[in-house]
């Protein structure tokens, strides 16, 4: 099969996305309008006159070398990853290099392993186990990893699981063929108790539009949990862009207790998959379990929409009791879902000297970030 890669319009790209069962929201045309600091384009793979694949490319300029860009396809592209990749990826690289890219970075939406909630729980309890990868797992996606490595692509997955890109490890709840009762039975006792506690306390979860109220609570959460919050205009742009593409693409959930906002979350849905994207919670009223109530409302809405998967997004692979990230996976494992490892992000240097300079710049920036500067 000989495929050609060429630009497509946002309308053509969206039409292709709408024909797929599962596409990351990071590979929708709307995401280009969210990432305003990047130059973007939609590319299509053609088999003759037929559009058979699509990808959103975000172009990041090199400092002091603005004519060259890193071409980034987050959680994409949307192609047939089970096919011979020789037909799919070299035409992409050739096209991007001809238009000024010094490297291509992509994140194949291909699973390489998964672990049940029970496995993760047992691993946490076992002092001999410190990482998810210490546990047995069904192996998948090895042909994609092998092809990328043989073709000169370089893995970008940080050891601790979180880096500058998107996480390789996620936590997901399978929804296909399940009922509300099935989902509740799959949760641990603490999660079920917290959902009931929120109901008994009178927590009310509504779908709203008050981004300012959500953002105020989100900033409070960032101060408490020591992360840098995104500004309010980012969320306003995100909601406007995604709703313009599909009115049901993004929803803001607000949990109130006695008239006071105690938690808020944002869910994004594309086709058969839904994602928990952002969350916030008050410190004073954490005991009424507004966050659990919001999560349960999103899970039920994803189920009602016919989704196959509800994703709680990234986790680190640590199961070490001394690691501060352990609490994150413990919170998510209580939902009864599964930890999933993906192929991760990979780079293909197209202009090696420029790529080395960029890599050095990014390493120095990461060192400064870790020092808190």
TrEMBL record:
<keyword id="KW-0133">Cell shape</keyword>
<dbReference type="GO" id="GO:0008360">
    <property type="term" value="P:regulation of cell shape"/>
</dbReference>
<comment type="similarity">
    <text>Belongs to the FemABX family.</text>
</comment>
<dbReference type="GO" id="GO:0016755">
    <property type="term" value="F:aminoacyltransferase activity"/>
</dbReference>
<dbReference type="GO" id="GO:0009252">
    <property type="term" value="P:peptidoglycan biosynthetic process"/>
</dbReference>
<keyword id="KW-0012">Acyltransferase</keyword>
<keyword id="KW-0573">Peptidoglycan synthesis</keyword>
<protein>
    <submittedName>
        <fullName>Vancomycin resistance protein VanK</fullName>
    </submittedName>
</protein>
<dbReference type="InterPro" id="IPR016181">
    <property type="entry name" value="Acyl_CoA_acyltransferase"/>
</dbReference>
<dbReference type="InterPro" id="IPR003447">
    <property type="entry name" value="FEMABX"/>
</dbReference>
<dbReference type="GO" id="GO:0071555">
    <property type="term" value="P:cell wall organization"/>
</dbReference>
<keyword id="KW-0808">Transferase</keyword>
<dbReference type="Pfam" id="PF02388">
    <property type="entry name" value="FemAB"/>
</dbReference>
<keyword id="KW-0961">Cell wall biogenesis/degradation</keyword>
<dbReference type="InterPro" id="IPR050644">
    <property type="entry name" value="PG_Glycine_Bridge_Synth"/>
</dbReference>
């Amino acid at each position: 099969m000989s495929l050609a890669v060429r630009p497509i319009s946002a309308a053509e790209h969206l039409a292709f996305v709408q024909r797929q069962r599962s596409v990351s929201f990071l590979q929708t045309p709307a995401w280009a309008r969210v990432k305003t600091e990047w130059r973007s384009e939609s590319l299509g793979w053609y088999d003759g006159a037929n559009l058979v694949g699509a990808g959103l490319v975000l172009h990041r300029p090199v400092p002091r070398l603005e004519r060259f860009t890193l071409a980034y396809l987050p959680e994409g592209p949307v192609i047939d990853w089970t096919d011979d990749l020789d037909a799919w990826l070299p035409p992409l690289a050739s096209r991007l290099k001809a238009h000024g890219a010094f490297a291509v970075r992509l994140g194949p939406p291909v699973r390489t392993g998964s672990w049940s909630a029970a496995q993760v729980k047992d691993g946490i309890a076992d002092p001999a186990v410190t990482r998810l990868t210490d546990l047995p797992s069904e192996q998948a996606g090895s042909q994609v990893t092998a092809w990328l490595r043989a073709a000169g692509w370089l893995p970008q997955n940080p050891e601790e699981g979180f880096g500058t890109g998107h996480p390789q490890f996620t936590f997901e709840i399978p929804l296909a063929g399940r009922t509300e009762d099935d989902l509740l039975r799959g949760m641990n006792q603490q999660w079920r108790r917290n959902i009931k506690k929120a109901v008994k306390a009178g927590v009310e979860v509504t779908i709203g539009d008050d981004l300012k109220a959500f953002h105020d609570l989100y900033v409070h959460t960032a101060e408490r949990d020591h992360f840098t919050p995104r500004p309010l205009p980012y969320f306003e742009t995100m909601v406007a862009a995604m709703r313009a593409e599909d009115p049901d693409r993004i929803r803001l959930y607000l949990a109130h207790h006695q008239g006071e906002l105690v938690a808020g979350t944002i869910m994004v849905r594309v086709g058969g998959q839904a994602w928990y994207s952002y969350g916030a919670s008050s410190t004073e009223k954490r005991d009424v379990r507004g966050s659990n109530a919001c999560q349960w409302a999103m899970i039920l809405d994803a189920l009602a929409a016919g989704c196959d998967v509800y994703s709680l997004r990234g986790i680190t692979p640590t199961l070490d009791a001394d690691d501060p990230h352990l609490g994150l996976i413990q919170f998510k494992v209580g939902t009864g879902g599964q930890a999933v490892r993906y192929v991760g992000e990979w780079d293909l240097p197209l202009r090696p000297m420029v790529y080395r300079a960029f890599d050095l710049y990014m390493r120095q920036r990461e060192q400064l970030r870790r020092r808190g500067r």
